[in-house]
Amino acid sequence: MTRVIHTGDTHIGYQQYNSPERRRDFLEAFRNVVDDAVEDDVDAVVHAGDLFHDRRPSLVDLQGTVDVLRTLSDADIPFLAVVGNHESKRDAQWLDLFADLGLATRLGAEPVVVGDAAFYGLDFVPRSRREDLEYEFESVPDDADHATLVSHGLFEPFAHADWDTETVLEESTVDFDAVLLGDNHAPDTAEVRETWVTYCGSTERASASEREERGYNLVEYDESVAISRRGLTDTREFVFVDVELEDGEGVDRVQERVRQHDLEDAVVIVTVEGDGRPVTPAAIEELAIDRGALVARVNDRRELPDEDEEVSVSFADPDDAVRKRVRELGLSDAALGIDETVRNDDVADSNVRESVERRVRELLEDDESAFEPAPEREPGDADVTTVADQLAEPSESAGSDGEGETAAEAEPEDDGTDTGDADGGADTASLGDFA
Fold this sequence. Notes:
With 435 residues, the chain is of the alpha/beta class. The strands form four sheets. A six-stranded mixed beta sheet has the order 4-3-2-1-12-13. The longest helix is centred in the N-terminal third of the chain and has 21 residues, at 20-40. It is built from ten helices and 17 strands.
C-alpha cells in the first residue's frame, strides 16, 4: 500500500492583517504538515500549488521553506508539487530551484512513481488558454497500479468552478483514478467519471470566512483509492464573535459578548448584524487587544439606511457613506461591481487585486463597452449585488481565501503566463507549456 499526504495552498509569506506573527504562522503550518509526514512515515508529500503567497517571496520565507523541505529530504520522503496561480512566474519557478537543490520534484507530463502510484502534474493554466489545451501525458509505467493527476484551479463540481473536470478526464491520454487539487481553500471530495476528485483545503486561514478547521488529506493506494481528512491542531486560533443586536443595543452589548471569550494570542473576528445603534469598531478592537488578542477586526454587516434618510458618517461606517456616494456617480454596472469587490469582506485582501483583474478581463471579453458610464442613473438603480456576487467568486481560494477569500484564487497579474494568445503563437497549447 502507498500512502501520501495531499496538501496545498500553504501561502507561505502571507503577512495577513499586516501581522509579522501571522506571516510566521503560514510557514509553521507547512512545517506541521511535514512533521506529520515524517512521524507517520508516509511515502510522499504531494503539494497542489500555491506553496508561496506570491511570486516574490522574501529571502526569509525562502530560507524557512528550504529548511522545512530538508526535513522531508532527510527522512527520504519525496516532495512532489505543481505551480499555483499565486506563485507563478514568467520563466523558471521557485519549485525549479528546489528541484535543482534536490529538495522537490516538479510534476508534469512524465510520471513520477511512488510505490505503486504514478503521479502527473498540471500547473495552473489561465482560463483563456484552456480551450486548446491538449492533455497529453506519458503512459503509466508497468510497475504502477494507479495514476493520479495533481493540479491547481477551480474545478467542477465544486463551488466557484471555471474548469470542466469531465473534459480533463475525457481528453487525457491517461486514465486517472484520482485528481488531487489545490486553489479552493475549502476541503471537499467528489466522484467524477469514476474518478475521485478532491481538494485538501488550505493549511492556514487566509480569510475570515474560513471558519472550519484547517488540515490536509491522507490518500491511500491499495486495491482502490481511499481519501481521509486530517486536521491541523496547532494553527493560530481564530475566535469568531457573532453579535445580533436588538433595537436599542449598541457597543456595550458587543463588548459584553467579546468579554465572554478567551482571546489570548487569537485572531478575533467580530461580526455585527441585526438592528441596534451604530458601533465604533475601534473601541471593540481595542478591548480585544487589551484582553490578549493578536489581531482584532470588526465587520458591521447591517444594511444601509433608506435612500431618503440622511446619511451620517462616523468612524463606524465610512464604507457605507462611500458606497452611497459611489452609486451616485453614474458608473456602469461593471464599474460598480469592481468597486464593491475592492471593499467586500468576502474577498480576501490577498485576492482583491487578482479578483478584480480577472473579472475586468472577463467583462471586456464579453462586452467592450462594459465600463462605459451609465447615463442618468439614479441612486440605487444599478443591480450591484449581481455583479458583486460574480466578482466575489473565491478566489478566499476558494479559495476559498477572504477577509474572506474563498480561496478561489484568481489568475495572477499579467506577467507572461498568458503569452501566446495575442502574439501569433501556436493555436494549441500542450502540457509542456505549463510544466
